[in-house]
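W.,

You were right to be curious about this one. When I first looked at the sequence I had no strong expectations either way, so I just let the prediction run and decided to look at it fresh. Below is the sequence, 180 residues in total, followed by the output.
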Amino acid sequence: MRLDELKKGLWGYKKEGVYRYIMNLEEESSQKLAEKDEKMAQQEAQAQSRIGELERTVEALREENTSLKANQSAVFATLLEAQRYAERLREESARREQKAQEELKTKICRQTQMLERYSDRVRQLREVLRDMLVEFDGKAEQTGQALASIQEQDPLSGSLPKRPDQDAQESDTWKKLLSM
């Protein structure tokens, strides 16, 4: 109902019409308030449900954050342990390398000493062989001279033929052996 729908009487508006009008306004207001209350209740319910969702999300994020912090701590601890382990490995590797170098130096020293001993033995053997060859050559020379003197004294010895290149070959062989 609107204000222009009210019936007018002799002294203004009729009470009955005004009451109805007020009641209509009151009903409309009540209805609007009820709708507003209902809307507010719905919005409040939606807000409460959203708050609940957000609180669950916050709780999940807190748990995830706690989990990530724990993981971060574990990763950090693992990283520190890995760095310590790498340092130990480097130190161990350096010790092993130093030990291997020392062992190699020792082996090289032993082998060098052994080679020097062999070299000395070979040199001594060469000297002994040279001395023996010189002695043998001297004895061969003496034997050759003795044979030559025997052949000169013995008339029958002229029958033994002597090769002319035999003396040159023997001399060359002895010279080669002595030059060693």
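Here's what jumped out at me. The chain is about 85% helix and 0% strand. And, maybe more interesting for your project: The longest strand covers residues 8-9.

Coffee later to discuss?

I.
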